[in-house]
Amino acid sequence: MADETKRSDLKLAPEEELDEEEKEFRAIRRNVDDAKGASAAGIVTIAVSKIPGKNEFFRTHPDFRPVVPMVNCEVGMEKHYFAVTKEMIEPLAAIGITVADHTLYLTITSRGAVRIVPVRRADAEGNQNEYDRTKEIGLRAGERKWVRLYTDMENKCYMVFPAPEGRFDDPVWPELKHAKIFRLGFKNKGRLIDSVDLSSVPAVGGA
Amino acid sequence: MTARNDLPFEQVWCVDFEFISKPGERPDVVCLAARELWTGRTLQMWREEHEDLGSLPPYAIDPNALFVCYVANAECACHLALGWPLPARILDLSPEFRNVTNGRLVPEGKGLLGALTYYGLDTRNAQFKEAMQKRIIRGRPFTPEERKQILDYCLEDADDLVRLLPKMLPHIDLGVALYRGESVGCLALIDHRGPPIDMANFAPLADARAWGAIRDDMVPAVDAQYGVYVRGADGEWHFSVERLEVYLKREGLLDNWPRTETGKLDLKRKTWENQSRGHPQLENLRQLRHVRDKMRKVKLTVGADGRNRTVLWPFKSKTGRTQPKASQWIFSPAVWLRSLIKPEPGQAIAYIDYSAKEFGIAANLSGDKSMWELYASGEPYLNFAKRGGMAPNGATKSTHADLRDRYKVGLLSIQYRVSAETLAGRLGISLYEAHEMLNQHHELFAGYWRWSDDWLAHSLDTGVMRTCFDWQCRTGILEFNERSIRNWPIQATGAEILRVAIILGTRHGIEILAPVHDAVLIQAPIDRIETDVARMQQIMARASRIVLNPTMGGTYELRTDAKIVRYPDRYSDPRGIEIWNWVLARLTEQATTDAAKRGDGLMDAQVKQRSASSKRKKPEPFVQVPWWWIKMAAKAARSPATLVLVELLYARWKAKSSTFPLPNSRLKALGVSRDVKRRVLRDLERRQVILVKRSARKTPIITLVGL
Question: Residue B593, Cα to own-chain centre: how many angstroms?
Answer without folding.
Answer: 35
